[in-house]
Design goal:
Layout (H helix, E strand, L loop, with lengths): L12 E3 L5 E3 L9 E5 L6 H12 L1 H6 L3 E6 L3 H11 L4 E4 L4 H6 L3 E2 L3 E2 L2 E5 L5 E6 L6 H12 L1
Parallel strand pairs: 3-4, 4-5
Antiparallel strand pairs: 1-2, 3-8, 6-7, 8-9
Protein name: thioredoxin-dependent peroxiredoxin
Main location: other
Subcellular location: Thylakoid
């Protein structure tokens, strides 16, 4: 069952490209989280999205938010992708797509992992969900608009 606006975001612990383990609960009570699911490292749409988050990273910091990218790619793939594009945020490896399934992120055409962004407030409640595979850059502005209204 998909997560909806108003639900408490399910906690998770996943490995990041820097070798740490990141848990959603690490930020509870402290910072809002932008959790964005994307299909695959170093593909055109995903690169546009990641670089757009990178280019707006200061704006996310100004509103006190943490940005976390999630795909099923390996830690090594995430390391290469983050280094190649100088990404200042963590990419999490969701081996087996377990977190994607927990959040109910749909597949497009039954095979392409979806591109969905969740804005989660400091208390862990989902405040906004944006789902668009083709409009990768819109995820950034949608997230910032919601964060500024919190």
């Amino acid at each position: 069952m998909a997560i909806a606006v108003g639900d408490v975001a399910p906690d998770f612990s996943l490995p990041a490209q820097d070798g740490t383990t990141v848990s959603l609960s690490d930020f509870r009570g402290q910072k809002p989280v932008v959790l964005y699911f994307y299909p695959k490292d170093d593909t055109p749409g995903c690169t546009i999205e990641a670089c757009s988050f990178r280019d707006s990273y200061t704006a996310f910091q100004e509103v006190g938010a943490v940005v976390l990218g999630v795909s099923s790619d390996s830690i090594d793939s995430h390391q290469r992708f983050a280094q190649k594009y100088n990404l200042p945020f963590q990419l999490l490896s969701d081996a087996g797509d377990r977190l994607r399934q927990t959040y109910g992120v749909p597949k497009t055409l039954f095979v392409i992992p979806g591109r969905v962004t969740y804005v989660i407030d400091k208390e862990g409640k989902v405040r906004h969900i944006f789902d668009s595979l083709l409009n990768a850059q819109a995820h950034i502005q949608e997230s910032l608009n919601i964060l500024r209204s919190l």
